[in-house]
Amino acid sequence: MKIGYGTWALQSIPLDDVISGLAEIGFDAIALAVAPDTPTAPANLSEAARKHLRALFRKHQLPAPVLAATMAPLAPEDEHAELREQFQALCQLASDLN
Prior knowledge:
Blueprint: E1 4-6, H1 15-25, E2 29-33, H2 47-59, E3 66-68, H3 80-97
Parallel strand pairs: 1-2, 2-3
């Protein structure tokens, strides 16, 4: 069994400290909060920030993070285009962090 922790409640702490701290405590995985209003939302992470994050996870021998999104996959059809864009951004972030 593996135990992970989500970053939702830790948004005010620098991400470097969050990742190193959770790894030090002994968590096996981390779920990044990636809602649009979070520091780790796809739109808020530059290419350099994504590379830095990937390196941090590897440095601490953690797998690529789970992405904890706040999407409504069963939303009404008129919202599908926006959801597709959000989903594509999340998939790109997942790929960048893997």
